Amino acid sequence: MLSFNSFDFPLFQMKYLLLALLLIPAVASAEQDDDFLAAREAYRADDLPRLEKIAENFKSSPLEPYLTYYQLRLRLYTRNPDGVKEFLARPDDTPVIDKLRSEWLKWQAKQMRWDVFEAEYPRLLEADDEMKCYALQARLPDGVEQVLHEARTFWFSGKGQPESCVTLFNMALGAGIISEEDVWQRIRLALEVNNIALVKQLSEHLPKERKIHTRVLESAAAHPDRYLAKLKLVNSSEAERMVVLFALQRLAKQLPQLAYSRWKKIEDHFDYAEQHYFYGWLGYEAARNLDDRALTWFKAAKDNPLNETQLAWRTRAALRAGNWYEVWASITAMSPGQQREGAWRYWKARAWKALGRDSEAEALLTELSREHNFYGQLAAEEIDTAHTGGLISVSYQPTIIEIEAMQAQPAMQRTLSLYRMGLREEAAKEWSLAVRKLDDKQLLVASGIASRNEMYDRSINAADRTILLHDFNLRYPAPYRDSLQERIQENNLEEAWVYGLMRQESRFVTQAKSTVGAAGLMQVMPATARWIAQKIGMKDYRKALISELDTNLKLGTYYMKNVLSSLGNNPVLASAAYNAGPGRARQWQAERPLEGAVYVENIPFDETRDYVKKVMSNTVYYARLFGHAAPTLKQRLGVIEANMRGNQRSMKNER
User: Fold this and answer.
1) What's the rounded Cα separation, in Å, for the pair 254 and 258?
2) Distance between CA 383 and CA 386 in Å, rounded?
3) pTM (2 decimals)?
4) Which domains are assigned to the chain?
5) Which of 229, 405, 468, 603 is 20 to 30 A distant from 292 in Cα terms?
């Protein structure tokens, strides 16, 4: 039986444990927190004298590496800054050392001090593309041709590349290692992601008579339908046809039918490869618009190779159409790596089952059912593993010595200090480095410490990483239950669903704030908060209250009830609505009833699709942990009723 006492000790042992934890010295005093934040501000202000003065107070502190980093960073771009090599040689496991190493290496590369660069580069933990290209430049004296062939692998991207890579690209272009055909291929990749600036740069590498005209490209990008309406193709060049295909692709994002109509008037001016290429993109955009003709257009692409995203949407379109053979064929066309993703293993098993290949289906489902996630739960239910979705009780009980040893680690102390000071980004980096090599038992100890310090996001992070030994109380914590009960009851909501949504929204960080301004445990948007406050008569509401615990719970649970009631009390639609808006949740319904899992799989927004899967999966786990009635995940997903409000083909995504 699972309880919310994560370690489930007898009472006298728990009291002894808590006493021992209280006796562990505090990581830092409030005064030291103030000093650290002052040092951080001095660093940002380039005030080295003040920074050095404050740093004197941190010589024996676990936070000392940060103070040293700040000082060295301000002196980094002198010729021989004192202390850098000693700092980089430290065995300390903290991300600020690797951060300085990265900055130091880039500076050495720009100064072309390749011997210094090559000596330090092997110790770098994480190398970005800029650093990898510098590492290739360092090897140029050992063999130019080999290095340039390796650099060519970075070429095929629709995104811009750092200057360190551009230097190598220019050399490879001059040597003919990157060919004109390679230039055209990258132009196409850039057009596919609407990177007009890169296309203009790449066009300079083409012969004059084959260049893409800037004005034409800008016109196609700004007003694709107007550009296509005025188009006259006579003896068109490859560059002209590529721009036309780009305009059609942009038009298809919003209006697949109009793009298809424009295409049929000019199709004969394109060769078969170009025609098949366009149909691949038209099928993709139609699938994302939930247009029933997506499969027809995908089939018209014939043998044109589809990328991973296109294959995923070809599979989703087949699911929405109920075409199990096409589901199987689309997944089979994926790379082995893509086929290993949980979604495609599950749907391939379902396709095999529908096609009468039960033994192959059961083998895939059995393997997948051991995973503790949305697809693992569905797989377990398909083979009827007691409807548990892999929920197991923890048998491991950490000792006080293990807990003390974990909390005494400098990385753990730095994490606790940084988190307490509100520096969550720095704390998360420290935590990630600290737990990356821990075994299951150590991860559970670390998770328990984080939970007791109300670092629920870090606690979940560690508990989620275990492989064989699991504690679902730590994976699915339930803080603030007393505060929530009144809100849940007054809105008649399922407690497990509320917690399932909160876990996904904020990981129970009360001060969480998204890039778009959503705030608090339930990530309520400011405009939504004002609207709710008016609806429920909160006359004293002001924006500053949005992250306050009780106010945030009051606003969030009211909004959950509002979207749930407006969407037929369907938690799948309501979860989608909470993330993307009620209008979109309705638009994504089909003209016929859909299996809930198929509806979710076809949500056009990547973020919302992942969100709904996790909220619904979380809800199942919370219901079981709370001891509530526990419908299976498949039962909760149910059937999404048909949208009778209009033709889905004409739907415009709210993007």
Assistant:
1) 9
2) 9
3) 0.91
4) 481-650 (1.10.530.10)
5) 229
